[in-house]
C-alpha cells in the first residue's frame, strides 16, 4: 500500500503535479505536422483506453489524492461515447479535455449539455490568427471550424481554453492571437502557449525543441501501452511508441503505476534551480 501522505508530499516538494493524464485514443481526424503521437485519420493502431479503464482510474485517483484529470489524444471526441464519459469523469474530479475543436456539430453539442457550468473544460488548439498559417500545420479549415465552435460552446456554458503551439510565430502574431481569444471571451489565464516538442512526428520533421530531463513537471500519464512520466512522454515515431519515459506496463489498480511513478520522481532534483520550460 502507498502511504496516504506520499503523493501529497511529492506534490508539495515540487516533484510532480497532482493531475492524472489519460491518453484516450491515438486516433485523430487531423494529421498535425508536429503531432506527438503521429495521429491521423487513417491510423491503423488506434490504441485507445477503454471507458471502463479511464473511469476506474479516475475513481482510484480521487481516492489517492489526485486533484484533477487531463484527457488527451489523438482527438478525444473520435471515441463514440466520450461526451458521456467526460461528464462522468468531471463529476469525480475537475477535468480538462484537449481537442482540435473540429467535430462540434449540433448533435455533439447537445450531448455536451450536461457539462454546462460544471467542472470540465475543453482546451482547443489554435496556433495563429491567420487562417492559412494555422491550417498549414494543423489541417484544412481547422481555423474556421475552431472559430465556429468556440462561441457555440461558450454560449452553452461550457468552459473553453486555448492552447497555442509555437514554432514559427512572431511576437506580433501571438499578440494578435491573444486579442482574438480575448474577443471571443477567453481570458489570458485560459491561454496556454508552449513550444513544439521535438518528439513524435515533430522529430521526424526536425521541428521543435529538444526535451531536457527536467523540462516537464512529471504527471502520471496512462495510455493503452502503459503509464508514462508525463503527457509529452508516450510519443510515437515511425509507428513505434517511445518507451524511454515509460514507468509501468500495468495501469490498474492505479496504485501500481503510481508507486513506480513516485519512485522515479523521488530520484529527480527539486528546488528553485529546477526550471520547467515546457507545460
What key phrases describe this protein's structure?
279 residues; alpha/beta; TIM Barrel; nine-stranded mixed β-sheet; two-stranded antiparallel sheet; globular
Please characterize this protein's 3D structure.
The protein has 279 residues and is an alpha/beta fold. It has one domain: TIM Barrel. The protein is 32% helix and 16% strand. The chain contains nine helices and eleven strands. The chain has a nine-stranded mixed β-sheet with strand order 6-5-4-3-2-1-7-8-11. β9 and β10 form a beta hairpin. α2 runs parallel beside α3.
Would you spell out the secondary-structure blueprint of this structure?
Blueprint: H1 6-12, E1 19-23, H2 51-64, E2 68-72, H3 82-92, E3 95-99, H4 106-111, E4 120-125, H5 131-138, H6 142-154, E5 160-166, H7 171-183, E6 191-195, H8 201-204, E7 221-223, E8 226-228, E9 236-237, E10 240-241, E11 246-248, H9 255-266
Parallel strand pairs: 1-2, 1-7, 2-3, 3-4, 4-5, 5-6
Antiparallel strand pairs: 7-8, 8-11, 9-10
Helix pairs in contact: 2-3
Could you name the CATH topology? Answer: TIM Barrel
**The CATH fourth-level homologous superfamily:** Aldolase class I
Q: How far from one another are the termini?
A: 31 Å
- Which shape, going by the Cα principal axes? globular
Q: Characterize the biggest β-sheet.
A: 9 strands, mixed
CATH architecture assignment: Alpha-Beta Barrel
Major sheet strand order: 6-5-4-3-2-1-7-8-11
Using only C-alpha atoms, the radius of gyration works out to 18 Å
What is the H/E order? Answer: HEHEHEHEHHEHEHEEEEEH
